[in-house]
Design goal:
about 100 residues; mainly alpha; single chain; about 55% helix
């Protein structure tokens, strides 16, 4: 459940001088618990990418969701191409391929 859904605006050092380089971003903040092994992987990724852990988590989530969409598109592409195949051995092979695509294994 999101904690906040507010526009985030960075403060300036001098309130009388508005800065044009400060961006207003829409952000949703979540609190998540990670298994220790996943937290270590996130920490390593953040260090490698030279970014914060929060940004690393956001990037990894985005990449995971994009990967899921790619697998889904590939699944339907293969399914459409092979709908009319009546060979039982070929059907078993396709079932195994589709299972791997869906489950990511």
């Amino acid at each position: 459940m999101p904690h906040t859904k507010n526009a985030t605006k960075r403060s300036t050092s001098s309130p009388s001088k508005p800065r044009k380089d400060l961006a207003v971003k829409d952000e949703v903040r979540y609190t998540v618990g990670l298994a220790a092994s996943v937290a270590r992987q996130v920490e390593r990724y953040a260090q490698t990418a030279d970014t914060s852990r929060s940004k690393a988590i956001a990037t990894l989530v985005r990449l995971g969701l994009e990967g899921q969409e790619i697998r889904k598109r590939e699944f339907f592409k293969k399914l459409k191409a092979n709908l009319d195949d009546n060979d039982p051995a070929r059907q078993d092979l396709l079932v195994d391929e589709f299972r791997a695509l869906i489950l990511g294994r």
